[in-house]
Amino acid sequence: MLTIDGLQYSNWSREIFEQMREGGLDAVHATLVYHETTRETLSRLGEWNRRFEAWPDLIMPVHVPQDIAVAQASGRVGIILGAQNCSPIEDDIDMVEVMRDLGLMIMQLTYNNQSLLACGCYEAEDSGITRFGRQVIREMNRVGMVIDMSHSAERSTLETIEISERPVIISHANPESFHPAKRNKSDKVLKAIAESDGLLGFSAYPFHLRNGSDCTLTEYCEMIARTADLMGIEHLGIGTDLCQNQPVSILEWMRNGRWSKDMDYGEGSASNADWPRPLSWLRDSRDFPNLIAGLRKVGMSEDEVAGVMGMNWVALLERAATRQETAPA
User: Fold this and answer.
1) Is the domain covering 4-320 a CATH 3.30.1340.30 domain?
2) N or C: more exposed end of the chain, with fewer CB within 10 A?
C-alpha cells in the first residue's frame, strides 16, 4: 500500500530513513525551514543534497508528483521538501519560483505569528491576507508550489482558499471538535478545504490530540472516520508531525525563532516545556502499519484506507504541485 506521511521534522539520519522504509513509507513531506532567511534556506537545501548523495539507496528528492511512483518502485523514500513559514522568500516575490525550482514543493504562509503574507493562529486579531500575500498566492499557483495553512488563523485560511485557484492544504492538524487546540481547525475551515478540493493531514502530535499522549489509536482513527463524513474521504491524509531525536533547542527555535527575547512555550507551558511523550502506537515511522490496522478496525474499506494512507496525497499533489501552463503570447 503506497504510504505517505504529510509532515515530519526529525533529526535526519540514516537510521531515521531506515525506519521509514521499515514502516513502509514511500514519501514524506519533510520540513526544510521554520524561520530561516533566503540564504539560510539555501544552506538547508544544500544539506539535503548531501543526504541524497550519501544515502541514494534510501532516499530521493521529489520534484514532481510522478517522482513518488519512482521512489516506490525503487524501494526508496521520496522526500517532499516544505517550509513551515514564508521566510524563505523574505519580501521578494521572485523567490517563490526560485525556491520551487530548487525543490521546495510546499510552503506555509505563516507560522503561528503574523507574517508578510497572512496571520498566524496565535495572534489575537486575524488581519487576513495582505497585499503581498495575494500576489504570492497567485505566484505559488502559477509555479506549482502547494499552499499550506496549518499554522494560520481562520480568516487568513478562508481568504486564501477563496483567492487561490488551486487546492489548499492543511498538512498537519486535526478538527477543533476533536480537541480544542489553537492549531486545530474549525468545521467551517475543514469544509472550505474540501470544497477547494484540498486536503487535511491528520496530526499525531500529542498537543493536537484529545488526552494528549494518552490518546488511543482507536480514538485517532475514529476521529478520521468522523471527519470523512464532514469533508469526504478523498480529502483526508496523514500528517503525523513526527519530530524524532530532536533536542529541546529545536523546539525552542520553532516556538521563538528570532522574534522574542522572552521564552514562548507555544502549545506547552513553563512547567511543560519539553517535547511531549510519544504515542505508544506511533513511536517512530516503523509504527505506520498500526495506522493501517486502526483504520481497518474502525470500518474503512481497503480503498478508503489506501486513500488516507497515501493515494489522496498523490492526487492532491497532481492537482496543486504542477506548473500551470501559460498560453503563448
Assistant:
1) no
2) C
